[in-house]
Amino acid sequence: MHGGDHAMRIGVAGLGRMGAAIARRLLDAGHQVTVWNRTAEKARPLAEAGAAVASRPADLASRVETVITILTDAAAIEAVYHGPSGLLSGDVTGRLFIEMSTVRPETEVALSRKVAEAGATFVECPVGGTVGPALTGKLLGLAGGDAAAVARARPILDQLCRRVEHVGPVGAGASMKLAINLPLAVFWQAFAEAYALCRHLGADPAWLVELFADTSGGPNVIRARGGAVAQALAGRSPGPPTFDCDSIRKDLRTMIAEARARGYELPVAERALAVYDEASREGWGGRDGVELPAYWSGRKA
């Protein structure tokens, strides 16, 4: 428990890789955590770690002061919040909902209205970072909502994030999350294309990745995940995926749809999506994005 913080009753709905890591972080911080997931077996490791398990979203909402949701897409949000035993199906007056899914801004705006009608408080806070940062409280939080709501959420967000930015009203967080994920998603294909120009030199992948990390075009992710990229290029498994190709595809589709609604095209994102789609058809969908350069270098035009 962090000094002076009181234990809160917090629910986490949606136990994908990130939701499960966030729930574990909150348990480690000394909170009373209740979890719910559509497929119940994902709750088992958290139950063993001390979390309570709710049978339905409504049951989760009734037991806690704050509900964190991190769900796949707009359809999942619809089902979990608005279904017959959804989060908003019972009395949730006074609850705080912190929504962390990666979806279009309009999804968060519509949801915030429904939560307000139910007498509860709503903050969106999608996060940058993967499982490692989630477990250690080092995510990047992109909060959207009114100042009072964000202030209420901040003690929890500060335990999950190394930095929390209040970026604007509800919807602003979603816009920023799509924006920050775009250069990351297209980077793996950019690096794949760069590798195509120098692979024939037969350089040691670890040396090559380190060199790229020291160049102007080398982003933070190649410094953070360089070892995994080198492993993949050498034909070895880089370990369990943190942000897999199918998740990146979902985010790219969401970015492209949002940009079109705002009158923009995203030609680089669209071409990158086509490559991820092809990789997924070839069985790489569940592999980490760091492996895309290995996929690309193994195929010939």
What would your notes on this structure say?
Helix 7 links the parallel strand 8 and strand 9. The protein is built from 14 helices and nine strands. It is α/β, with parallel strands linked by helices. 51% of the residues lie in helices and 13% in strands. It is globular. The strands form two sheets. Strands 3-2-1-4-5-6 form a six-stranded parallel sheet, with helices on both faces. A three-stranded mixed sheet has the order 7-8-9.
Strand order of the largest sheet: 3-2-1-4-5-6
Can you tell me the overall shape? globular
Order of helices and strands: EHEHEHEHEHEEHEHEHHHHHHH
Terminal residue distance: 55 Å
Beta-sheet strand percentage?
A: 5-15%
Assign the structural class, choosing from mainly alpha, mainly beta, alpha/beta, alpha+beta, or little secondary structure: alpha/beta
Secondary structure: number of strands? 9
Largest sheet: 6 strands, parallel
**Helix-residue proportion:** 40-55%
Q: Uncertain regions: pLDDT < 50 for 5+ in a row?
A: none
Radius of gyration: 20 Å
Number of helices: 14
Question: Residue-averaged pLDDT, rounded?
Answer: 96
